[in-house]
Large subunit ribosomal protein L39
Amino acid sequence: RSGSFVYDVDLDMTDWSPSSVELRCISQIGSRLKEKDCKFERLDMTIEKAEEMFMDNKYKLQQIPSIASKSESSNHVTVYRAGEHIDISRGPMISTTALLNRFDISAVHRLDTSLSNTMFRVQGIGMPTQLQLHYWTYEQLVNKSKKLNPALMPGTEPQTDTLESTEPSKQQAVN
């Protein structure tokens, strides 16, 4: 695997290239999730329920039938809830955000996709509290996670019966 997590997002910007300060600020926001101790809850739902849940997200709507067809029943989609956030993911997830030790957004790449000319892939790395790493080792992992992760790109079909966590989200701004 690539060693990084990814999240594809349509930011309605065409040429954003975040500075190292911006990446650190976004990383700090993610790091604050630890204090919230949000539990990750796995939810399996029918195609119809998933389409209803994501009806305002054209990217996820396009992917739901393909994702469901790969499920055991060919009619279910797995989503995870953490606090108020719900998203499609094959998992598995850690049980709670309190288990996050180190968290960094390492890169934001503009994607070449037919779906949108403003699609970006946010990449990063997160380490659980149980895994204590020397700072040098962690920095090596952060540097590796900067390279564009080749996980499933928006608008393409999965090649296997598993799905990377790359379902795009429509957002106007990063909080």
Residues 161-175 have pLDDT under 50 and may be disordered.
